[in-house]
């Protein structure tokens, strides 16, 4: 990922019944905000209590055993209006990794999005995301054969009108994971809330 200067954060469009799970998102120049400065190395396991950060490798699969998730991962970018893309609505729903965020296990917040419902097809891949609890795990399998194991720190349900952009996309000094879907009651434009899972890297494999 090439270092780029950070610019303004753009506001996501109103959510529809099937999409809009990303809340707000940075534009294409935002990835630098997700990384520590080049002069500051990632924390070591000895100094931080977390495993050493992994190198960049595209995630290909996500497993969350506690809620029965085992999904291939799509690569998501930005839509023409500057909002984060969401996975397509299909019968075989899959989650997607936001490719302008760090890959799972890199220093910074890696962002993965999924639907809670997919219209006529029924439940989405993240239909039970709000049931996750502190201490449960999510495992991201990477293209290079390694796996990044994350442990849930907290689960938040927030109004889409008050999406916590900095908490989700802002810079952090360790490898973290964000899982995002829609939630809460439905209004005229769809779901009114976002469910956001915050997790920290606690192990690696492979």
Automatic annotation (TrEMBL):
Disordered as annotated region, ranges: 25-57
Keyword line: Hydrolase
Position of the signal peptide: none
Gene3D superfamilies: Sortase (2.40.260.10)
InterPro entries: Sortase, Sortase_dom-sf, Sortase_F, TAT_signal
Presence of keyword Endoplasmic reticulum: no
CDD domains noted in UniProt: Sortase_F
Entry superkingdom: Bacteria
Name of this protein: Class F sortase
């Amino acid at each position: 990922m090439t270092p780029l200067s950070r610019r303004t954060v753009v506001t996501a469009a109103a959510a529809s019944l099937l999409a809009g799970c990303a809340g707000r998102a940075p534009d294409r120049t935002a990835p630098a905000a997700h990384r520590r400065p080049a002069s500051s190395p990632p924390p070591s396991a000895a100094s931080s209590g977390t495993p050493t950060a992994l190198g960049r490798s595209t995630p290909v699969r996500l497993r969350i055993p506690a809620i029965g998730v085992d999904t291939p991962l799509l690569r998501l970018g930005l839509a023409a209006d500057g909002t984060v893309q969401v996975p397509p609505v299909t019968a075989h729903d899959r989650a997607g990794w936001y490719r302008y965020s760090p890959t799972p296990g890199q220093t910074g917040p890696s962002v993965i999005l999924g639907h809670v419902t997919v219209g006529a097809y029924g439940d989405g891949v993240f239909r039970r995301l709000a049931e996750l609890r502190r201490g449960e795990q999510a495992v991201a399998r990477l293209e290079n054969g390694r796996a990044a194991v994350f442990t849930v720190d907290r689960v938040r349900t927030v109004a889409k009108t008050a999406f916590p952009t900095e908490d989700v996309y802002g810079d952090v000094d360790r490898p973290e994971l964000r899982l995002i879907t829609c939630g809460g009651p439905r209004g005229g434009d769809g779901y009114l809330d976002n469910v956001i899972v915050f997790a920290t890297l606690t192990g690696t494999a492979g």
